[in-house]
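Good day; I would like, with your permission, to put a structural problem before you. A protein sequence and the structure tokens that stand for its backbone fold form the material at issue. The record follows directly beneath this note:
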Amino acid sequence: MVLAVLFASGLATGQAKPPGDDVIGTIEIPRLGVSSVVREGDDERTLRRGVGHVRGTPPPETLGNVGFAGHRTSFFKPLRRIRPGDVIRLRTPTVIYTYEVLSSEIVKPEDTGVFDRKETPALTLVTCYPFEYKGHAPRRFVVHAERVAVTTAPDAWARRGPNLTR
């Protein structure tokens, strides 16, 4: 069984894992009931399986503007109700990053400046807009948040980690 998992992940053969197979942690927005696995990458396969870390944005443990993307019809559907002051938590194997929502905006898909580097730790969430639109949505709904706390939690993953078998 262990060997099968190693071969499936590519670890036994030295092959790189496909995008979306590297789990970063889980994202939670308690007031909205959002809870999802966060995976590396922002391709379609990754976004079908959870929230994705936008390529080219820094990882959560560094300074800068971390970008996450999710589908408006699944994981990020509740974002339509987000408001300033809402709490967003990113749980990793050893650390819990807590962010506070500052604002939201609607932009064109080509407006990638929402992910511009920041000097302070920040988080940007993006999903398609309008939420009820059928087909390829013409806009993007963007949430801006700032990091307000970092908590070391060595057993956080064991208590609330993602289901890695999905």
